[in-house]
Specification:
Elements: E1 14-19, H1 30-39, E2 44-47, H2 56-66, E3 69-80, E4 83-90, H3 97-123, H4 130-137, H5 144-154, H6 160-168, H7 183-192, E5 196-199, H8 208-216, E6 221-225, H9 231-244, E7 247-250, E8 271-272, H10 273-281
Helix pairs in contact: 1-2, 4-5, 5-6
The chain binds adenosine monophosphate (AMP), fe (iii) ion (2 copies) and zinc ion.
Length: 283
C-alpha cells in the first residue's frame, strides 16, 4: 500500500496516532473509527478523544476483532506560557481511579465553560440553551464543536467553521478560556501508569528552546506529522525531536469528517509503525 501516495516502500506499515470519536467531538462511534482504519489499511491507531478514555473499550474490542492495534490514548489540554497546549497521552489504562477522577474533573470544567459560552451567546441574542448542547453531545466529553453544531442546526451560522470564526474561536465574541492543569501535573499522572505524553500540533512553536523546556516538565514525545504541519516542517520537527531525545509521533487528528479546519483524512499522515515501536520502547 502507498497510503499517502508519497512513494513509501510497499511493505512499510502505517499507524495514525491522533483520532477522535463520538466519545468527544468526533462524528463517528469508536468501533466505526476502527472499521474505517482497518479499511484504510492501517496496522495501528491511537484513539485520542479530548479528556476521556471512555471510547477505548469499544475501540479496542473492534481492533481485536479486525487485527488493528488500538493504543489507549487521550488528548489533554494543559496551560503553558503562551496559552493552551494539547498533550496526547499514550498507553493509558481504562478504569484507573486516579486517571478517571482527573478526567472527570476536566470534563466538569468543559461543562462549566460550555455554560459560560452559552451565556455569552445568549447575550449576543443567539437562541441557544445548555439543553441544546446536551442534546447534541449526549454523554460525550463536551467541546466547542458541539456548540458549533447546534448553531449550524439552528441556522445561526452556515457551517461549523463559520461558528468558530464568528463566535467560538480564540478571541471571538463568545470565546471563554479553559481552566487548565499544568504539563507536569498531567505528565506525572500519565507516567504513574507507564503512559507517555506527546505535544500535539505545535506548528511554529516547535523550536529547540520550547521543546527543551517542555521536556524538562516531563514531555516524552512530540507530534511531528500533523495536517497543520507542512512536510518540511514535519521533517524538521522529527529531526529536532530525535536530537533532543523526544520520540516523534504523528496523526491525522481526524474527527470523522472530510479534511478541514486543520484536521486531516484518516491515515493521511502515513506514520511508520516503527514510530509506535520507538514510543513503546520508551515506556
Ligand atoms: P475545545 O476542546 O472545546 O476547546 O474545542 C476545540 C476543538 O474544536 C478542537 O479539538 C477541534 O476539534 C475544534 N476546532 C477548533 N478550531 C476549529 C475551527 N476553526 N473550525 C472547526 N473546528 C475547530
Ligand atoms: Fe477536537
Ligand atoms: Fe488538539
Ligand atoms: Zn485532536
Amino acid at each position: 500500500v502507498d497510503l499517502a501516495g508519497v512513494g513509501v516502500p510497499a511493505l512499510t506499515r502505517f499507524a495514525d496516532l491522533h483520532l477522535h470519536s463520538t466519545a468527544s467531538d468526533g462524528l463517528l462511534p469508536p468501533a466505526e473509527v476502527i472499521r474505517r482504519a482497518h479499511a484504510a489499511g492501517l496496522a495501528a491507531v491511537a484513539l485520542t478523544d479530548h479528556d476521556t478514555v471512555a471510547g477505548l473499550p469499544e475501540a479496542q474490542a473492534e481492533g481485536a476483532r479486525l487485527g488493528v492495534q488500538v493504543v489507549g490514548g487521550c488528548e489533554f489540554s494543559v496551560k503553558v506560557s503562551w496559552g493552551e497546549l494539547h498533550l496526547l497521552g499514550y498507553f493509558l489504562p481504562v478504569g484507573e481511579p486516579a486517571i478517571e477522577e482527573f478526567l472527570a474533573g476536566a470534563r466538569a470544567m468543559r461543562l462549566t465553560r460550555a455554560g459560560q459560552i452559552v451565556e455569552h451567546l445568549q447575550a449576543w441574542g443567539v437562541d441557544i440553551t445548555m439543553e441544546d448542547v446536551h442534546a447534541e453531545a449526549g454523554t460525550a466529553s463536551v467541546g466547542r464543536p458541539h456548540v458549533a453544531r447546534v448553531l449550524v442546526r439552528r441556522g445561526t451560522v452556515p457551517s461549523v467553521s463559520a461558528a468558530f470564526d464568528e463566535f467560538l474561536g480564540h478571541g471571538r465574541r463568545a470565546y471563554v478560556e479553559k481552566v487548565l492543569p499544568s504539563l507536569s501535573e498531567v505528565a506525572i499522572l500519565v507516567h504513574r501508569f507507564r503512559g507517555l505524553v506527546s505535544a500535539a500540533h505545535l506548528r511554529e512553536r516547535a523550536t529547540r528552546a520550547t521543546l527543551s523546556a517542555l521536556k524538562q516538565d516531563g514531555l516524552d514525545a512530540v507530534e511531528a506529522r500533523h495536517p497543520g504541519h507542512s512536510p518540511d516542517h514535519a521533517a524538521q520537527v522529527e529531526k529536532l525531536a530525535r536530537a533532543l531525545g523526544l520520540v516523534p509521533t504523528g496523526g491525522s487528528d481526524w474527527h470523522g469528517e472530510d479534511a478541514e479546519n486543520g484536521h486531516g483524512a484518516l491515515g493521511s499522515e502515513a506514520v511508520p509503525l516503527a514510530w509506535l515501536e520507538d514510543l513503546d520502547a520508551r515506556r
